């Protein structure tokens, strides 16, 4: 299970700092958790989408980063830094696509228009698993090894979503209202343990690709 402690600290008249730390039930920090804040007033969402594509690389036969978070409408580039070919695909509803075997030539960046979770795989290396979290607003972050996330955003009423690739369904459905602009500390405890990670072995019979 994960405990989540939130603290909102003012950083000025125009913006607030939302801090969140993601911990296991034993008090250990957890990496790769996404926190996203969606304003209840959708008119406050800035219309600007980052012009530069986000990058999800392939290094040592793994997706790097393991979890990438972007804003809906943003593009993602998929370079391959390995010396072998990869075949990237997704069957997820928000974005179904396929980048056939490639190595040196980087495919054109793909646009991810629909919010949701996009699970990635490699058709050659079955253990390669990655995720793209497509957020509804620009206010999101991913926990580092220390479990901490910091998000700067305007004061107001928001809906908080927390996601991790190994969460079970009962926790994936949970959301919570938060008020940004007032001191806040809260605890969020998952109702079910995380799934066990399964990345498979790294033996590769396709080194010639």
TrEMBL record:
Domain of life: Bacteria
InterPro entries referenced in this protein's UniProt entry, alphabetically: Cupredoxin, MauL
CDD domains: MauL
Identification of the protein by name: Plastocyanin
Native organism: Ferrimonas marina
